[in-house]
């Protein structure tokens, strides 16, 4: 599992870091988020069995990757808390708080390094070192310190992400923070598995039995956290693409009704030669098409559909009335000084429905 899930997590982290560095944000919160991606990338790159073994071979220190990867996890937690602190508080208030957080996590890492040296993990193990040495009491102390610090950080992250998500106005930022909170819950599943590792030796249990829980909690929790923290950056582009697709479809759906009205009165259209589909300046073209259809409906003596019908029945009735007015040539010129009009989404959807009903009549 490490050889597949962990490289996926590492790739997501490094790609996210590249996009973050290429972006415009340069404040302390943006730096903290970039460090989050950096430490997440280091965590899962080092945890890859191939990199793990290479580090031990080059350094001559067996399982050095264990300390480095878990030290990077401390960086992951510290950078997330720092970003939240800078978002929630003025910079002059946030700065000393973040400094104290960094001191605390640094102290934990120094203590982890000391216990790692004392544990003397002589045999390199690129995949199961965490559970292999669960019976080593020095290593058990190391692991207890690590997972406790990580658990405290994850609990703070869950609470603060959810609290800040309720306070922010940005839709994508709120969604991202909630997703990051879910990722932190995955981290807590990893913590529970590691606490079970510590208790396994005294109880005579096999920690390998729940190792998949630890790896899935770490891997899936990391993916959710990465997606959550990056969501405010690329989420608006997703919304823009969705809106563009919606407008292209609406523009195309309006064409049959618009074309019929413009054939009867070419003066209605700013661009009588406009086609069925538009890919550029879609919002402006859609706006014009709705306004021109609205002007065309005012130009015709087409009675309104009865209000007691269903939406489809009303659309069909209005389309039939427009078709009859076009065939009969009974028209009424619009008032000379029409009020400016900005089409609403509801009006656009309604006219698209009428246009589809009109196209069905003309088949």
Q: What's the topology here?
A:
Layout: H1 2-22, H2 28-47, H3 49-59, H4 64-88, H5 91-119, H6 129-132, H7 137-167, H8 171-203, H9 211-264, H10 282-299, H11 311-328, H12 345-362
List the keywords.
363 residues; mainly alpha; Rhopdopsin 7-helix transmembrane proteins; 2 domains; 12 helices; 78% helix
Descriptive account of the structure:
- The chain is mainly α and 363 residues long.
- It has helices at residues 2-22, 28-47, 49-59, 64-88, 91-119, 129-132, 137-167, 171-203, 211-264, 282-299, 311-328, 345-362.
- The protein has two domains: 2-235, Rhodopsin 7-helix transmembrane proteins (Rhopdopsin 7-helix transmembrane proteins, Up-down Bundle); 265-362, no CATH class.
- Helix content is 78%, strand content 0%.
- Helix 5 packs antiparallel against helix 7 (137-167).
- The protein is elongated and about 95 Å long.
- The model has no long low-confidence stretch (mean pLDDT 87).
- Keywords: Membrane, Transmembrane, Transmembrane helix.
Query: Based on the structure given, which CATH architecture of the largest domain is correct?
Result: Up-down Bundle
Residue-averaged pLDDT: 87
Number of helical elements = 12
Largest β-sheet summary:
none
Structural class: mainly alpha
Rg over CA atoms: 31 Å
User: Could you name the CATH class of the largest domain?
Assistant: Mainly Alpha
